[in-house]
Amino acid sequence: MAQQSLIVAEFKRALRERGLTYAAVATKLDLSIASVKRLFSGGDLSLKRVDLICELLETGLAEVLARARDRPAGDQLTQAQEQEIVSDPRLFLIAWLILNRAPLEDIVRLYTFTEREVLRHFYKLDQLKVIELQPGNRVRLLVSRHFSWRADGPVQRYIHQKLLREFTASHFAGPQEEFFFHGGAVSEAAMGELKRVLRNTSRQCVEIIEHDRSPRETRHGAAFVLALRPWKYSGFKQFERQAEP
To answer: Strand runs (DSSP E) across 91-137, as ranges?
Structure first.
């Protein structure tokens, strides 16, 4: 089962790298896209299907396993790593872009960095073990696809102080904008279910971004926020009935 999970995870990475979709896998396996998603979700792949997917990817099972085992799977950076990144606005921007799979040439084209300046920050991120800088100035991420910034860590505090204030200073009324806010009294079990749904939704949103193969020049900046916490509006507190002693 552990090796099956490694194989499925590496298949997903390899498909993204090659710009292939579940539809291509479905055609190769003579299955529906829904069936392929279930297979990948459950990790239940027969040897025959593994061989067929390897054919699609033009690779071998030994290579798939070798690459999978060689990939670190960190979901978070250390406090020190985050502090180093957020202390330099340029380094933070380039780290953010890399985590969004932006190649060096796009960073140079879209931002006021020379190639030498970008590479200097690449070297720094390589030293911090956030990326592995490979031949041809290619970048391999040393964090998992479920990476997130540390709760109440240096980067998240920066996001709260700077990014969220600016992001939420909008009426979200534009044709490409959306905003939902809803709350209610829930049990601990329902709270746990809400957290699970939010995590899954976040991962689905990240997958949409990662699978976007449109030309870079046609893309524009976008962001989404998913949040959940036990909360009561302070403006209602004055109307709360006090519990009897």
So the answer is: 131-134
Please state the rounded mean pLDDT for residues 221-229.
87
C-alpha distances in angstroms, 41 versus 85, 110, 201? 34, 36, 15
68's enclosing H/E stretch is helix 61-70
182 occurs within a structural domain: no
N- to C-terminal Cα separation, the chain: 55
In a domain, 10, yes or no: yes
Q: Which domain holds residue 35?
A: 2-70
Structure tokens at 244: 């009897």
135 occurs within a structural domain: no
Phi, psi at residue 149, to the nearest 5°?
Answer: -70, 155
Three-class DSSP category at 134: strand
CATH number, domain containing residue 32 = 1.10.260
Chain segment 42-99, per-residue pLDDT in tens? 767 888 888 999 999 988 888 887 776 555 546 788 899 999 999 999 999 999 999 9
Total count of domains within the chain: 1
Q: Quick check: is 9 in a domain?
A: yes
Provide CB contacts within 8 A for 183, sequence distance 6+. 231
Q: 158-215, pLDDT tens digit by residue?
A: 999 988 888 888 898 888 899 988 888 889 889 989 998 998 898 888 888 888 888 8
Q: Is there a contact between 74 and 99 (Cβ–Cβ < 8 Å)?
A: no
Model pTM above 0.70: no
Residue 212 · residue 205 · CB < 8 Å? no
